[in-house]
Amino acid sequence: MNTIKYLLDEDKMPTHWYNVAADLPTPAAPALHPGTGQPLGPADLAPLFPMALIMQEVSTERSIEIPDEVQQIYRQWRPSPLFRARRLEKALDTPAKIYYKYEGVSPAGSHKPNTAIAQAYYNKIEGTKRLVTETGAGQWGSSLAFAGALFGLEVEIYMVKVSYNQKPYRRALMEVYGARVVASPSTETACGRAILAEHPDSTGSLGIAISEAVEMAVQRDDTKYALGSVLNHVMLHQTVIGEEAIAQMEMAGDYPDVIVGCTGGGSNFAGLTFPFIGAKLRGERDVRVIAVEPAACPTLTKGKFTYDFGDTAHLTPLVKMHTLGSTFVPSGIHAGGLRYHGMGPLVSHLLDLGTIDAVAVQQLETFSAGLQFARTEGILPAPESNHAVAATIREALRCKEEGKSETILFNLSGHGHFDLQAYMDFQAGTLKDFEYSDEEVAMALAGLPSVG
Q1: Which listed site, 114, 168, 399, 434, has its alpha carbon 20 to 30 Å from 108?
Q2: What are phi and psi of 132, to 5 degrees?
Q3: Does the pLDDT at position 336 exceed 60?
Q4: Strand order of the sheet with strand 357-361?
Q5: CA 287 – CA 58 distance, rounded (Å)
């Protein structure tokens, strides 16, 4: 009756990833070639990704086997624990039951190794020697650096400059794993030099960092690009989270009425929710799903659902997603992993279908929620994860007001041990809220590409 954690044995770890594309009532729009405007073929993506990942990107198979070598590495931290947040429930005096899936137990401290390991594996077996990527807060960069070390791959990372300066210890972790880390925008690429010429004090953005990484990746035949969110194959690799959570909720004799996840590009959100959404789409179990984003980067709540580039320099394919425009540069909030102008196409498509809901939360509310969580549950969440904590607390208090005993499940996507300066700033009262007006969003959207 008083169980706190639900643990699966290693032999219960998922052996297959779940692909939500198999259960969509209407398929997501295809990615388009940036030059021709025509749907992409596998050959168009070959300069960037190994063929195995390209085929996963376009697959509509419901179940895709996880390679044995990837499963073996997963076992270092998977299955991850599911916790019942009993002390938080008591502090909120809510009749709601709150559960959280904790991904901070991975070596890199977040959910990101679930795809980093898979991407490094597929690149290794297809002969790649070097991976180039971008990172915001550094969760993805440290995860790919970790994966590169395991598979003997050289890793080069363009880190958004505001986070490069805000999070020196996350940068140090990447370097410990053997990666080379460059502040973006940099003078190493044509894209970076052009941006610095126009904006010498640019704090950077994920769109800019992606442009730099892609530009470097296509220059060498032994090099590929790796992306930590947004794309379908990344969402696919993360679904081990939700598959485990379904089994753990069965252990608890419960099932969520509400599922919450923070969203930047959508990977941790998709990882937890997609297996549950699949059951909903198949008519098996209903659930309300909430995507939570920063008010400072309101992609789902204020962005437009249309075709856009994934990067600032327009080197990437065009994908249909909720976007604020590829030139959008958000304020330097501490949730660096959520500062991206676009949302993953599959997450965007599900919002357009009405399958999920979206809310935006201000920075100060998220840090207040993170402190309350740390002081009750003992785990310090990452600034990104605080968005899910804040929305969960909102839902729990709603249950209190309505006198409803609903079950809430959220993804605690990573720990905040490298983000203590942000918590210090919050407690010192120096953090600020940021919100973009409709007029500012309209200006950012003015440069969207024209797609027939």
Answers
A1: 434
A2: -120, 140
A3: no
A4: 5-6, 82-84, 97-102, 407-412, 258-262, 288-294, 357-361
A5: 27
- Calculate the average pLDDT of the chain: 94
Q: Where are the domains of the chain?
A: 5-10+68-109+239-445, 49-66+111-232
Q: What span, in angstroms and rounded, lies between the C-alpha atoms of 128 and 177?
A: 18
CATH class as words, domain 5-10+68-109+239-445: alpha beta
* pTM assigned to the model: 0.95
d(CA 88, CA 376): 5
Neighbouring CB atoms inside 10 A of 219's CB total: 10
Q: What is the pLDDT of residues 137-160, one digit of tens each?
A: 899 999 999 999 999 999 999 999
84, two tokens? 């019942």
User: What is the H or E stretch that residue 306 is in?
Assistant: strand 304-309
Least confident of 69-78, 180-189, 196-205: 196-205
pLDDT tens across 187-246, in order?
999 999 999 999 999 988 888 999 999 999 999 999 999 999 999 999 999 999 999 999
Neighbour tally for 16: CB within 10 Å: 14
Q: Could you tell me which residues are beta bridge partners of residue 262?
A: 292
DSSP state of 20: G
Per-residue pLDDT at 382 exceeds 60: yes
**Token pair for residue 379?**
């785990």
Domains 5-10+68-109+239-445 and 49-66+111-232 share a fold: yes
Contact 396/405 with Cβ under 8 angstroms?
no
CB atoms within 10 A of CB 172: 14
Which CATH number applies to 49-66+111-232? 3.40.50.1100
